[in-house]
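Prompt: I keep going back and forth on a fold encoding question. Comparing notes only helps if you start from a blank page. Show me how you would write down a chain together with its backbone fold. Please set it down just below, with no commentary around it:
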Amino acid sequence: MISSTKLICTFAVGGIVSNVCQAFTIPQPKISSSTMTATSLMMADNNLFFASSTSPTATTDIDEITSTANIINTDIKSQQQQSNTQKAQSRTLGSQELLMLPRQYQPKLDANEPYFPSMSHVSVTKLSCTPSINALSKAIDVSIDTHPLLRSHVQGNGEPDERIDLFQMVRKGEPNPCTFVAPAMKTFDSKDVLNVVDVNGDLSELEKSWQTNFNTCIDDGSWYENASVGPLWKLTLHRLQQETGDDDSSDSPCALVFWSNHAISDQGSVNLLMDQLLADIVSIEDSQQVSNKPIVQDMPIAMEDSVLGLNNRWSDVTTDGIEVGTIKYVADKAAEGFKSPVILPDDADNGGDSMLGAVTTIMGKSAGGEDSESSSKRSTTLQFRTLSTETTTALLEACRANGVSITNALIAAMALTSTDFIDGGEKKKEKERNYKVLQSLDMRRFGAKLDKCDTVACMAGSNDLMLGPLPDHSGESIREGSTSDLFWKLAKEGRDQTNDFINSNGPQHAVRVFDFAMTISDMNNLVDLTAKSKDSQGRAYSAGVTNNGVYERQKSVKRENDNEERQNIQVKHGKYQVEDVFFGTPHARSGCLYQLSALTVDGSMKLTFHPASPIVSEETNNKFANAFVDLLEKVGSGEDDTTKAVSSEGFLPQIPEGSLSIVAAALGFIGVVIHASAWSEFFSNLAIMKQNVDNPQDFWDAFNFWIFFAVGHPILQPILWISDVLHGSPGPLVFDLVPATFLLANLVFIGATAYSKEFRGALNVAALSAFLTYVGAGLDGQAGMGDLNLQLNDKYHGQVVKGCPTYEDVRQPSMDGFDLEKYQGKWYEQKFHDWTQFKEVYDTTLDIKLTTDKKVSITTVLDST
């Protein structure tokens, strides 16, 4: 769940913006109108991103630090025993699924640009023994019968009736929506899904084989090529070469690599699927059939329906679904850009302002210019690590002692380890930076909670955590012997921000905003523009964490002979022991700078580090993974016992949390609404202006000139105001320069900003609100003399708001009998306003003379500021 200053839609539903693989640079054959593709993301700052697989929210109980189904209501009255008969099923894709699929953008296809790539989801399950090919194939066939999305394809191209805005981004209508279709009759089976790789060598060669497959799949966004046919997933068995036939199993270890379009799966549902396959394999090898058959499932609902309730999407309720909390959520997301979190290491070639970048992207351009070649060359670099059972247990106990969850600890560790590598090796220990961490969430936990993780589907979402400022090499300091105070402080800060998000109905607001944005706009094109941006290089977050919890605490698939209570997933079925599970989604095209995906299996935590190369090199990722594990071992060991409770109340604790931001957002909303007709007039004039200009560059030159003044004035106003306050402040001068009262007022303001999170948040929202209101007043002809008219067409509200009047228009009766000859000579004006010279013009000399026909001739000399 989405983005991401953040385009108003910064959601975060999906959690890590990993937009799948490399962009295609070779033009592909176009898919017919009954096809689809894939991608992922959302927008934040000047970037889009979308999340990956699921992750549990903050909790301290081991029973609750689990994957999706752990907190799911297992009293599933709606899932009664039903016939194992397939039926044709279909539904339109939800907004989150459309980003991952992805829905395409016809204007770029018409320009012969390649399709947007899909977002992949890859997971490997390592087993102690190797199943027979026949048993595995039969188990796969049963799973295709059981789960509708495993036998689905996509119909419809999702194109709107028209795009109605200047930048070709706002959609109207959708006559042929993208739709999942699961036929009653199977159109493919295990032969279309299963690949077998026989490895010639030892266990090290087996590891190399599945890791190569994992790396290839995670960056392969070619799912769109067969989306209209299916299947949307694959399974590859890596086994040691053996002489036995396909009917025989082996006691040698193997690896099963699952690979799908992320639109149909998250890690929780893949765990469900793999557990079903293993249980069915054991049954088939024992009796040649599945003795306790899985219940055939209905088509899963979309994530938006699970969270918001059925018939409650934006297309169903439109503005009726917007609440005050929704507006505050949007304002808070926009305000995050003011904190300027780091998204690229110092040795990366980057630059640009995030606010300006967001505006540029909305206008249909990549921030800092487009670099398609570099974006297409980015790929995932992988590192796999296992945290021992002893260290995992010790870390859990330390988390309980500090009142945080494992997820909170992983987020703190990612932020601190990021500080060790962000300077690109330049050792800038004195520098402090803010970090924005994307925390993946299992959206089944929130809102209406309609999805019960009983079939393969994707319910991935996320929320943003802002941490810092943190000194460079903070993680290194802790590993080398400093106390763990900062670690636990960050873990508690992440916990508190997550609880605030959940308690304020943040998941519902995030889904609502993202669904709105995806419904009315081409979000996938914004993702593409962000991925190709020279400024951001596709990065939207400092780091990302996906913690899928505890494997064996999820619920398994419902079976015919089960009681009403679903059983837990097992780490061992027959002779097949699940030894490792690693998973990930791509961040090569767009996503986080540093990314971790974690899952605990049989008491041991499995860690996958999968950032984008060359932004993060293979060598750096290897060092990062080692440093991360070392940090967890240090804080879990309890070598220092100096951890202290850290208050997060900050300054002004007596003010109700969120109240200042709500007030600032409400005032800003009112300011926009008051001038709504002026904004509408402006965009209408802008569209006319663009249509009347043959050369697009001429239009952009003129529009950029308008932006220069529209943005320059609001920025100058507080500067000029502070200057007036400085010179007018009473009291003695400090160093004969600055009044003492002015310094004291600044200290109070800085203190409030530094110590009160509430005040900082409200200040950011207020600044954005004031900016929009100020420009709106200029558009409406209601501002002061300096900003009287920002409209492109002076004729507004039926009259010329500001223009160049004739003498007859302004002549007053007092001019009768006026003797012009008496006023010849030099005149001096100390100050007057001139729009083209910003605000003030000083020291103006007027040399007034009469011509022979008694007309006034004035020579003006200006000294402007």
